[in-house]
Amino acid sequence: MNPKGYFSLVLHAHLPFVRHPEYERFLEEDWFFEALTETYLPLLEKFEGMERDGIHFRVTMSLTPPLLSMMTDPLLQQRFVRYLDERLSGIEGELKRTQDDPYYHPVVQYYQQRFTRLREQFVDQYHLDVTRGFRRLMENGYLEIITCSATHGFFPLLATEEESLYAQLSMAVRTHERILGKRPKGIWLAECGYTPGVDRILAEFGIEFFFVDSHGVLDATPTPKYGVHRPIRTPHGPAAFGRDYESSKQVWSAEEGYPGDTIYREFYRDAGFDVDEPHIEAMRHAGIKSFTGLKYHRITGKGDWKEPYHPQWASDRAAEHAGNFLHNRQLQVQHLSSYMDRPPIVVAPYDAELFGHWWYEGPQWIDFLFRKMACDQHDVEAITPSEYLNRFGDLETAQPPECSWGAGGYNEVWLNGSNDWIYPYLHAAAERISQLAQRFPDADGDQRWALDQAARELLLAQSSDWAFIMKTATSVEYAVRRTKTHIHRFNRLADMVESGHYDHEYLRAVAERDSLFPDIDYRIFRKSPLV
After folding, report:
1. Cβ pair 71, 80 in contact under 8 A
2. Where are the domains of the chain?
């Protein structure tokens, strides 16, 4: 039986490149460890469970180059094992502390089982490299893994120097192929940032599709007949898929969506802040209270009082919400298919870290959703963008406007009074390295070493994460320091190239700290697809 419509779940998995070998411990590295613990490993567990049970499911997932680089970095792999072992040790202390508490002791026992399983997954199953799990699921047809710009560079604000777009895409495609074994067909444009003309460069790299927020399709010229429920063909060939606002809001909205349910785990209450015991202190960084991942409360309500978390209650609620979501998608595609010339596609893109990290039960919800979709109905079928384009490739041609997702929808999150100071430096550096690449087309030895490292530093400075953090005022000091540090390193390296005098000790130090992209070639900062 042919479905009335299709559903495409798109998970954007990204973190900025945070790796500090110069310190024994570094607080911001926990961003990566928390995401592995709460999002990436749990998602793999659910995906593999569905594969084992013969469930038809399809997920599109971007694994960005910085994330792939961290997943395959030996230093971070070993530090994550230490992170897990510290939590398991802390749990032993918590089991003793709560042994007479009938409300919280069962939650601690749950975490003991959970972290033991996570360690088995990471160490015994994936041998410290979770990209193996994602790659296998990709090769077996369950995941479509797409790329992103090399360091999550935001294209609308880098496009004044097209060389930066070529550089970001060159290293993105090269890293994807090196780690995952094949060239990507699709891309998640960082922050869904599109500007006219980007589609031409994407086509040069063999990219066949990308995603935009709803208004990126709805405001295209000419206006697409079927809105976001059929992709459009951009003037230079790649297809643009638009976000379905209705399905997305049901999930991501903390106020109106599922994650705010009172049964689910409360994110902000953590033993790292609530408990003052030596075994909790051992998980802190220099005595700074921080998240440990041991969260014992459910959301309960908006007040300070929080009731104990019950994992089974939360799992049952996730199943209910999955059924509700699927029912709404059935109604949606039944309506859309009544007047469209082909089955509609409902594209639901989210930050992957919503599932598990922010919404702890999110991976369970995904598991329930696809199991219900495969077994309980025939109206909606899971699909990837590539599969949809293979079946329905004749698309309307239209030009999306410059756009992004985020507040306002037109770049203002990444260009405002909190972060606008960074762009003159980024543009000047891009112009400078482009000129150096033209001036020294065949560098070798120390000159090549310095130019390649300068290219790394500029790519890292171009990460949209720093501007985003400055805007949201979360870890502003760190974001400012990273931006200034990479620009300073870039200029010092460029000065070496221009003067011919090289500081080998400095070169070794920065190459060790900023070590991603081992196959980088400074000539990516030219207007050609160097991959």
Report:
1. no
2. 1-72+129-254+313-414, 82-126+266-308, 422-524
